[in-house]
Structure formats: structure tokens, C-alpha cells
């Protein structure tokens, strides 16, 4: 019996993979997607890390914990009084699981709607041959299929501390951090990146004593320095204990919890005893079981698949997108690359602009930015103008009861082109989109300053920050 043949086969059903498969099918290709994620019952759960143990469930927990904190600390100022406030962690986790399930089922529906053939199992290369490449699907039903084009979108895995494996009971990756069955009295977090801050924030709001240990001497080094400074001040005030410049020497995982021995920024030996330890020190490209050597697929020293700026690998008609290749490990970056590759296979000109990919940290306040930071512009020696506007002076933020933070614009000193926008404050994740659009169209700060923004709205802070570039804010 001959193997099933497809024009395009996507290995991996995360944001990069499932989007690539749908776009390829829309363009008329006979398309399949292979994904091995399983739900609690062993059924398919496409959506990758993002949907199952990343972006989606973490936002669900952040929302639940934010409601709890609002009820416990801020409802009273609105005239709402509560007594006997409690948190049912099991119910919170069940809601999170329900949100994940809705997303899993939504992707399966989209595959059906777009006539994408779905294979539940692990995809791997067998050999070059047939119409292009033979691929094995290892799952409940093992089979070999053939593809003219292959798009690898296998994502990434959490990086473990050397010699300290994740047991997902005491030493937790992002996966285990989303499934802690009850609020720990003491929680340790190694790494003050996005995952560390978001998960630390969730459990801190619910009552955990949270200590974050960061190896780097600077906080949020990728963010604008002014934003990072404000964030450190706010998070510390909220109760997160953040230590910078830390060297972790030893981690002991015992029956009663975890002991971390480390050297602090002053060079003094310290010990931290916690019930649970979240390790969030970055992620590594996932090529486990892909069998790249069977076809000579080239990987770099980090284990990432080597691609050019078009996401082409060293093999003809084999492409790779998302966390498994170079560039930021962001779900929306993977999606853009997935669409672009499908369009390139169709002979079109897929577009991904790395200079306008937004970054978001879903803490409270939220942090979002696009483009260059002030320290990057200084390092480049580029002449620029800066303007910022605080949410304290924004009417909608006052009514919302959340006036923390500001919007900051960076523009070219001569042309006024927007070079970067940085936001720390309420709904920063939504507000940043306007600046992404503006930068994609090479807008000037004056363009944003001249556009009518609804009143009262948080977006007025964006307009005012653009006005501030020319030192003519109207409300501050």
C-alpha cells in the first residue's frame, strides 16, 4: 500500500505550526499537521507549549489571581465590601484547564474547517525520497507519510539547571508552575524573565512568600532601563523579593521542599529554603525525536535548526519556524513566520519584520514594548528625542484605579520617525498594537500626536507621550 502524500506537512501544532498548516491549506495545498501533545485523557491537544503549558494557561491564572487581589485589596475603595474571602485553588486550576481545552478544540475545528489532515503523534524524518521526504508518525497508529514540503515547528523546552532535573513536584518548569495544587507558603523562582515574573506574581497574589533569584546584575535587561527601574520598584512594593547578581551554587530537592545555596551580589553565602522552586532560566530548541540526521538537516551549537532570513533550512523544500530557529521565542513571531513560509511555498512574498515584533510581560502592571530601547540607541550613537506621559495624569486610568507607570516614545532627532515605544501600565499589551502599526508604516511621533484618540481612554497616554517628544503635552 502506498504512503499518503501531501504537498505540505507541518511537524508541530503550536502557534507556528498550526497557523502555517491553515495558511498552506488556504493557499490550496494538500496539507497535514503532526502534533503529539496529549490531554489528560490521552486525546489530541494541539496548540503546543503556548496553549497547553504557556501563554494561555498562564494568562488564565494571572486573571484569576488578579481578581482575588482586587477583591482583597481594592474593592473596598469602590464601595464593595466582602467578608470571608477565600481562594479555591482547585477550582482556579479547573477553570484554567477548561480555557486550555477550548483552545485545543478550537484548533482541531480549524483544521477540519480548512481541510488540514491531522496526525496525532510525534513526527520525524525517515529519509529523502518519494515525492520529497518520508516522515514517520509515531503514536497510537504508526505510519509513514510523504511530503513535497516540510515545515518544522517543534518549538522549545524549558532549560533545566545543570544537575537539577525537573520533577514537576518540587522543582518546577513552566508546566509544573501552572499546576501547583495549593498555595505554597514559600516559593522560590530562579530567573526574573517573563515566566518567572508572571508565575511569581500569580502565587504572590494568592499569598505565597516569593523570592526571585536572578544571575544578571540588571533587572529586565531586554527592556528599556526606565521601564525596568519602574517595574523593579513596583514589584518590590507589591511584595516580590527580587535579588540580582546571584550565583546559584547548589540546589537540594528533599521530601519537605527545596534548599537553594547561593552567593549574593555582595559575595556572601546565602541559603533559601522553599516549598516549591520554579526554574525559569530560558528555553532550548526542541528537536527531540525529529531525527534530523536521517536527512542531514543542519543544527547550530544551541541545537536550533539553521535557517536563512526566509526560514529555509539547508535542505531543499524543508523550512523551520518559531522557537526551534533563531530569533525571539514568542508565539506571535512563530505565527508570522508560519504564515510567511506558507506564502513563500506558494511563490508569494511572505513578510516578517523583526524590528516591529512586540514584547509583552503580563504582570500587573503590564509591560510592553516595540522597537529600540533608549540604551540601544545610545550604544548605536543614534540621535533621538524622548517623550513620556504618566498614567497618573490619564483620566481613564484614574477611573480604572490603576495609575501606575507611563508610556514612552523614542523618535529620530531629525526625521521624527518612531524608533521605539515602551509602556508599563494598565492594558499595555493592548495599547502597544497602535505603535506596532505606526512603526510598520514608518510613522513619525507627530503622526500619532495628530491622530484623534477617544476620551477618556488609556490610549490618550500614547498620544500624549508622542506629543511629549516635541515637549507639548496637554495634560501633564
UniProtKB/TrEMBL annotation:
FAD/NAD(P)-binding domain sequence ranges: 6-338
Q: Cross-referenced Gene3D superfamilies, in alphabetical order?
A: 3.30.390.30, FAD/NAD(P)-binding domain (3.50.50.60)
- Residues that bind FAD: 59, 123, 154-156, 323, 329-332
Major place of localization? cytoplasm
Q: GO biological process annotations for this chain's record?
A: 2-oxoglutarate metabolic process
Q: Which GO terms describe its molecular function?
A: dihydrolipoyl dehydrogenase (NADH) activity; flavin adenine dinucleotide binding
Q: List ligand-binding residues for NAD(+).
A: 191-198, 214, 282
What subcellular locations does the record give?
A: Cytoplasm
Co-factor note (free text) = Binds 1 FAD per subunit.
> Is Phosphoprotein among this UniProt entry's keywords?
no
Q: Ranges for the Pyridine nucleotide-disulphide oxidoreductase dimerisation domain?
A: 357-466
Q: Which residues form the active site?
A: 455 (proton acceptor)
Its cofactor is: FAD
**Cystine pairings recorded for this chain:** 50-55
Q: Tell me which EC number(s) this protein carries.
A: 1.8.1.4
Keywords, ordered alphabetically:
Cytoplasm, FAD, Flavoprotein, NAD, Nucleotide-binding, Oxidoreductase, Redox-active center
Catalytic reaction list: N(6)-[(R)-dihydrolipoyl]-L-lysyl-[protein] + NAD(+) = N(6)-[(R)-lipoyl]-L-lysyl-[protein] + NADH + H(+)
* Annotated GO CC locations: cytoplasm
Family, per entry? Belongs to the class-I pyridine nucleotide-disulfide oxidoreductase family.
Which NCBIfam families does this entry report, sorted A to Z? lipoamide_DH (TIGR01350)
Q: What else is known?
A: The active site is a redox-active disulfide bond.
Protein's recorded name? Dihydrolipoyl dehydrogenase
Species of origin reads: Caldimonas thermodepolymerans
**Lineage summary:** Bacteria, Pseudomonadati, Pseudomonadota, Betaproteobacteria, Burkholderiales
